[in-house]
């Protein structure tokens, strides 16, 4: 078990070692460790070695000049200059919030970025200013739209954070697929099959093969099949891709580069620059007095949380499980899987940073 | 078979008969018939008698004073004054587009409205100005969120319309449920069961009973069950509800009034005013030169349409089926089911309007 502060400090040292500024290494490590704290282990420190691989492959600029390249009072395109998405996304969110401060809302589409960690982190930045936050990002193609045999979309998540008064904020943060790809990796390690409705095989048939996506198959959109609305999950993933990729001039659809792989799909090989994100901020008091709105959000949250539920379950408010996990892990610490500890030990050795190899 | 113009004229006469102005009767009939033209029969002329029932029940103001009650340069709340949603929503969209014209984007949350027809119509208004259009609306509770036994959300649709250059626009328009409620009504008429994953029974169990929603059960969110991501469909429906209802001061969650029923849930019984919508417009050239963006949209659309597909199928671009249906029905006419013809005949008799009772 590791304390979050210990791991955050380690991440910071690694980002400093590849040339990030002190300020950006601190920001990137805060974003990355927040995933581990919130229980989204697949998007936290487990990916640190991947970000370094991105650097090794020449796809990551550790000292990016993140700037607005096009704008109106409420909209902008930000060029991430091949920086860490972990840094580019919060900077773009700051720009969205400055615009919202002035004209009620701000919407920033980002090009030339990389993987930005968990979507929810960036959306939640808006909460401290009584704003609603939006985050989207596109990602490398793993998903076969309804009837497609080709993988054309990433898991393309959407996050929306909404402030309340006494209740904790509503924070929805979800991929536009039936499940996250990480669920397959867990099953692969255990040699277990996947439920039907998660993936299709190379011929478009339903499959329980947890290796299907690696063998020419694809992840299924939310809805799983046409009869259960997979065209809606496909539509949602498409919207996320268009707002993140097409609106910014980043890559989109089948051209979005993979997380950290070498060689494949340089900026010149694609249809735009790097990975794309979309961030938005709306002042609650651009619509109603903020306290009125937040009291009604309390009422909304309580009506849902208080609903009758199936035996042994309760109706969950989006964001509750992650917040509860953060409360626990902030105190009890974060446990890491052996391969993750190993990857961190290798980084420690390479960059000559202290790291205590500890598995409980 | 009826020509669209004939039916549109009939709708217009009915709205005039209940006291709408000439301008608003024309607008409302255009919106309503567009649903029939686009093949969304459940939201078209079949509902005309329902709108009249809404009027009979004192819930509809035929001469509303639709106005902005709160605003910033890019945001507003519009009060629909209990008007037809068919009229209130396009007026709110005009306000969103005026704001987008000035500051890049415009976002309008609407309270005190009623059912607004098909979401896609309002989003598509933005296309003519090279803008991206957004529409959401909440609706009466039919949906049981993940693990809930209570119906807390409506089918809460989302529509996003995006212009392209040579290709027809991308128009995603979908409910946040596994299926529309209309699919159950079709099965009920035929006495057929429903596929598992569409509804749950009164104890929260999966069911094939096509009458489940009437017998204490509920429609399932997109994703159907927890294992296939129903919490994401629930999250999406919740976002639509919060943006439409809480942000505007309309009713939300379990308090949203039914389409046209008498007595139930007057404004005083709820937590806000009427039904809520959310409309947005974003200038494409608030992000990139419009032609660049639209050429990239062509590239996006062609990549998806041209993908390999399962045998006998193709990858469908959101909006294509509705556009193709409109092309056919604009020429060949619209066929109506006997109960719909009967409801129109009754309206014709009541208001002394000519209507040719014709079933082929």
Automatic annotation (TrEMBL), chains A, B:
Q: According to the lineage, what is the superkingdom?
A: Bacteria
Among Gene3D superfamilies, the record links this protein to: 1.10.1530.10, Hypothetical oxidoreductase yiak, domain 2
Alphabetized, the UniProt keywords read: Oxidoreductase
Q: Which organism is it from?
A: Dyadobacter frigoris
User: Could you give a GO molecular-function term held by this entry?
Assistant: oxidoreductase activity
The protein depicted here goes by the name Ldh family oxidoreductase
Q: Which Pfam families match?
A: Ldh_2
Return the Polar residues bias intervals: 202-213
Stretches the record annotates as Disordered: 199-224
**UniProt family annotation:** Belongs to the LDH2/MDH2 oxidoreductase family.
């Amino acid at each position: 078990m590791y304390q979050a502060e210990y791991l955050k400090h380690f991440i910071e040292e690694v980002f400093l070692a590849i040339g990030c500024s002190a300020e950006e290494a601190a920001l990137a490590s805060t974003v990355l460790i927040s995933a581990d704290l919130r229980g989204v282990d697949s998007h936290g420190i487990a990916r640190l070695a991947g970000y370094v691989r991105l650097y090794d492959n020449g796809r990551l600029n550790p000292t990016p000049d993140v700037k607005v390249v096009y704008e109106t009072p409420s909209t902008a395109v930000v060029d991430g200059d091949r920086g860490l998405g972990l840094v580019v996304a919060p900077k773009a969110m700051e720009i969205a919030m400055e615009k919202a401060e002035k004209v009620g809302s701000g919407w920033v589409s980002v090009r030339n970025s990389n993987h930005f960690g968990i979507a929810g982190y960036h959306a939640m930045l808006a909460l401290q200013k009584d704003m609603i936050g939006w985050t989207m990002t596109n990602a490398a193609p793993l998903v076969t739209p309804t009837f497609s045999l080709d993988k054309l979309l990433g898991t393309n998540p959407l996050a929306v954070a909404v402030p309340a008064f006494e209740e904790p904020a509503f924070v929805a943060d979800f991929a536009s697929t039936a499940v996250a790809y990480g669920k397959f990796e867990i099953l692969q390690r255990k040699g277990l099959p996947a439920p039907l409705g998660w993936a299709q095989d190379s011929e478009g048939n339903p499959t329980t093969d947890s290796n299907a996506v690696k063998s020419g198959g694809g992840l299924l959109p939310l809805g799983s099949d046409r009869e259960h609305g997979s065209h809606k999950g496909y539509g949602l993933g498409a919207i996320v891709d268009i707002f993140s990729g097409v609106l910014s001039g980043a890559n989109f659809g089948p051209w979005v580069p993979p997380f950290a792989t070498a060689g494949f799909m340089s900026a010149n090989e694609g249809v735009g620059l790097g990975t794309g994100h979309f961030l938005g901020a709306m002042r609650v008091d651009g619509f109603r007095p903020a306290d009125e709105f937040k009291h009604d959000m309390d009422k909304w949250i309580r009506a849902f949380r208080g609903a009758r539920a199936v035996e042994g379950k309760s109706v969950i408010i989006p964001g509750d499980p992650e917040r509860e996990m953060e409360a626990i892990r902030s105190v009890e610490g974060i446990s890491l899987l052996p391969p993750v500890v190993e990857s961190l030990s290798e980084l420690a050795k390479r960059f000559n940073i202290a790291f205590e190899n500890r598995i409980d």
